[in-house]
Amino acid sequence: GEDVEQSLFLSVREGDSSVINCTYTDSSSTYLYWYKQEPGAGLQLLTYIFSNMDMKQDQRLTVLLNKKDKHLSLRIADTQTGDSAIYFCAEIPDRGSTLGRLYFGRGTQLTVWP
Amino acid sequence: DSGVTQTPKHLITATGQRVTLRCSPRSGDLSVYWYQQSLDQGLQFLIQYYNGEERAKGNILERFSAQQFPDLHSELNLSSLELGDSALYFCASSAATGAGNTIYFGEGSWLTVV
Predict the structure, then answer these.
(1) What span, in angstroms and rounded, lies between the C-alpha atoms of B5 and B104?
(2) pLDDT tens by residue, A60-95
(3) Which three-class secondary structure string do you get for chain B?
(4) pLDDT tens-place string over residues B11-42
């Protein structure tokens, strides 16, 4: 199947690092994505990683992929109140029947306290 | 701004009615996806079109239908509406299809059925 699991809530203090975790079940997943949804807004693509990579860094964002454990994490350095949002992990399994279709987790609500 | 445009942004309608949601993909993108976001179901894939043809079908009800036109814009038709159809409907687009394509989402259309 294509189950993507995330913890539902995370609270951090402004300036700290946030780590949002995600696990997926489909071993054929070759592309994994992080999307951000602010209140009343659409889904903003934050970053993505290919399965042949272990890590990807983009400014304050670091994505770590442990393919053996099917574990993906998103680290936000120096978290700001503007980072408060719901973060979705998503995968596209590399199988013909599901080509191009994103499977989403339920999202992690990140709350940043000043 | 993702470049994906959805109209209307908000819609309130009565049970039993029919509505049409419209999506203009990013310039040059051939693939269009529709997703439904609700509190209880999370983000559910509905349907995908690629260059005018249906490519994949997800949890789309028989009361719902979609199409992609020659100019690549897409419409999602929802009929015989029920209270449970109240949700945020996202359109997304990508250049092609298959794993590895970056998928960009619009701001969504909020549908409230009363």
Answers:
(1) 11
(2) 999 999 988 999 999 999 999 999 999 999 988 765
(3) CCCCEEECCEEEECCCCCEEEEEECCCCCCEEEEEEEECCCEEEEEEEEECCEEEEECCCCCCEEEEECCCCCEEEEECCCCHHHCEEEEEEEECCCCCCCCCEECCCEEEEEC
(4) 999 999 999 999 999 999 999 999 999 988 88
Other Cβ atoms less than 10 A from the Cβ of B48: the count is 28
| Contact state of B105 with A35 under an 8 Å Cβ cutoff | yes
Q: Do B4 and B106 form a contact (C-beta atoms < 8 A)?
A: yes
Which residue in B has a C-alpha nearest to residue A32's C-alpha? B100
Upstream peptide bond of B70 is cis (omega within 30 degrees of 0): no
For residue A70, the SS3 value is coil
Cross-strand bridge partners of residue A45: A35
Q: Among A4, A99, A103, A109, which would you mutate to test the B interface (most chain B Cβ atoms within 10 Å of its Cβ)?
A: A99
The yes-or-no verdict on residue B100 having pLDDT over 90 is no
Say how far residue B94 (Cα) sits from the centre of its chain: 13
What residues contact residue A55 under an 8 Å CB cut-off, 6+ apart?
Answer: A62, A63, A64, A65
